[in-house]
Amino acid sequence: MKKRNKLKKKKRIVGKNNISDIFCEYAHDYITLGSNLEETKNYLNFACVAWNLSLYPEHDMKKKLKIVVNEYERLNPSTINAEHLKHDIEKLIEKKIKTHPSINRLITKISIEENESNYYISTESTEFQLADNK
Length: 134
What we know:
The protein has 134 residues and is α+β, with helices and mostly antiparallel strands. It is 49% helix and 18% strand. The protein has four helices and three strands; from the N terminus they run βααααββ. Strand 2 and strand 3 (118-127) form a beta hairpin. Helix 1 (18-31) packs across helix 2. The N and C termini lie far apart (62 Å).
């Protein structure tokens, strides 16, 4: 079997349904920072976190982002600084709010498949509703 150099050309990111298409357009530049499938999955997951955080009111969003960053640091103690991750997520949140403010869908499942030239993203989502904490 012939081994191919996967780093020769960046793969395209392609959605498999309507929300997937929108999500791919929103996160494409970030997701394609990955140089292999594993790295691409990591970028995809953080882009998904940012998308979902963007649905919360600003004060809740900031609290939840802090929790995500703290948990990332806890689980990755060798990471020098999680501030880069925080910055990336904040930029993705801003982009989601700016480009798709009316889309109020919480991504509940996201997956990625790879073939020779593309990554295919598939999402499941549900209408987002804040819990009533009265």
